[in-house]
Amino acid sequence: MISDIMARVETILESSALTEIEKDHLSTMVTNLHKELDEVPEEKKEDAISVASFTEVATRVSTRAKKDPALIKHATDGLDHSVQSFSADHPKIAQLVDKICSFFSDSGI
Fold it and tell me: What sign has the CA pseudo-torsion 9, 14, 17, 19?
């Protein structure tokens, strides 16, 4: 299920209006996040699926042609909140999510 969600994220990126540099940068972060989520133990899989799902939503709303800042904030806040249970045991996941959320904020998206 995580792979399906992350594949959709990649599809969203490929068809987005982002520059090639932005696409490459975000795609690298998404690929790394996917790898980390795949390694989450079974008892945390539901949480990992939530992180992947919020990544999809945040990517979808943040790369639209017509941006809604409130919706982007809501989606990235949801993504940030979904990763809180990972911060102690899986700091790489938390760091990657923080970078993805920062990318959406810092790039003027």
Answer: positive
Which run of H or of E encompasses 48?
helix 45-62
Give yes or no for a contact between 101 and 76, defined as CB atoms under 8 angstroms apart.
yes
At 59-75, the pLDDT tens digits run 999 998 888 888 999 99
CA distance 7 to 14: 11
Q: Domain residue spans in the chain?
A: 2-106
The pLDDT of residue 33: 97
CA distance 109 to 105: 6
Distance, in Å, from the CA atom of 43 to the CA atom of 52, rounded to the nearest integer, reads 16
